[in-house]
Amino acid sequence: MDNITYEEAAKELEEIxxxxxEDQVSVDQLAAKVERAAKLxxxxxxxxxxxxxxxxxxxxxxxx
Length: 64
Prior knowledge:
By secondary structure, this protein is mostly helical. Helix content is about 80%, strand content about 0%. The chain has one domain. Helix 1 (about 5-20) packs antiparallel against helix 2. The longest helix has about 35 residues, at about 25-60.
């Protein structure tokens, strides 16, 4: 994901999910939207894991 923040990715993912729930996505766009949602979800998940690891390392360095 090029230069996108976690917040931007999460917001876009929420928008796509809302469109899907409200049947606002045409059949022609459905596959592309679902693929984008999957990529955004994976990106957000990885960012959360990475941040959690960084925080854990900081805590360990501080001896907490």
